[in-house]
Amino acid sequence: MDYDDIFTAYYTQYRAESEVPASTDDEYIVGMRYANAAINRWANYDATYWKELFTTSQLNSTGGVVTITSGTSTYACPTAMREAGGLVRIKNAQGQVVQEYSIIEPQEAQFADSNSTYAYFTGNPTAGFTLNLNPAPQSSLNGLLIDYVYYKKPTEFTTGSSTTEMANPYFIVNHMLYPRLRASRNPYMNTALRDAEEALKNMQQDNNSGTWANPWKVSDTSGSDWGM
Question: Which of 73, 91, 99, 219 would staple 136 via disulfide (CB 3.0–4.6 Å)?
């Protein structure tokens, strides 16, 4: 669902009218602010890592430098990056891994061998991250692709065609209804809030449980019990 679809569902429930305000109408503009507030609620809910927000630097590279320049050891990360994870892999045009950099914490770099191969990220989600590679790539890697997994910020609505990564966009619909009904002192506001929170909890449950064949959490196969 894009924002236009979400706004249509929201406004139909709020006003029970077939006609939906144009994108220049205050109702539409305020609704987008409500929708983005819902996305923020989802993104920061109960320290949950949402599957939909994991991506890679090659799939989502906007604002980042994801191509190797020989002799260059620092590279701007995509602006959507919130946290880093996994290995940094250098790939050729066919997607084959040519070299890997294990990731260490920035403070560990001072203790690392200057000749060893490692990477670390500096910065923060507000001012942006920088990828640091050691050693600086040789000429044989020039022009190759930098790929790594990262956890991204959610996409906010800016236009009617904007979409969300969220698994159940109807959470946004109900979350939008709550402040709108509250502003008009409509007693059904609590029902909207309850429906929104229930949808959010259900998304979290689905997110954290995975499937029987592909569990989200790694199972303990050690054969021992805690404390034994």
Answer: 73
Determine the Cα–Cα distance for residues 34 and 179; give it in Å rounded to an integer: 8
Pairing, β 118-124 against β 97-103: parallel
Q: Which pLDDT tens digit goes with each residue over 167-212?
A: 999 999 999 999 999 998 999 999 999 999 999 999 999 999 866 5
Cβ count near 150 (within 10 Å): 24
For residue 4, which of 215, 118, 169 has the smallest C-alpha distance?
169
Find residue 84's DSSP bridge partners.
150
Classify residue 172 as left (phi > 0), alpha (psi -120 to 50) or beta: alpha
Helix or strand holding residue 30 (H, E): helix 26-43
**Segments of the chain with pLDDT less than 50:** 218, 220-228
Q: Which two tokens stand for residue 186?
A: 């409509």
Q: Which of 98, 185, 187, 90 is nearest to 146 (CA)?
A: 90
Residue 227: predicted pLDDT? 42
Q: Taking Cα atoms as reference points, which of 169, 148, 167, 138 lies closest to residue 69?
A: 138
Extract the tokens encoding 12: 């139909």
